[in-house]
Amino acid sequence: MAELLIRLYQIITYALSIYSVLLVIYILMSWVPASRETKFGRILAKIAEPYLGFFRNFIPPLGMIDISPIIALFALQLIGQGLTPVFNFFLRLL
Fold this sequence. Notes:
mainly alpha; 3 helices; 79% helix; 0% strand; transmembrane helix
């Protein structure tokens, strides 16, 4: 059972890392607006926009600068760091 929890932890943290990289790529694509019109840009938008849209609902842009993606990445990192104590707790129970 402990091996299963360790493997699950590794998969989740790896998925969060990949998602963070995809978010950074999507954010950087905003500097070149035509890049979001490509097939890759549209696929990336379907992956990133639901998560980023959640933060955009609560954090308005400051003039021309949208800081919600920075907060979204920070929140994703906190979620990843918060998983470690949770999985350690469950491993100690086994």
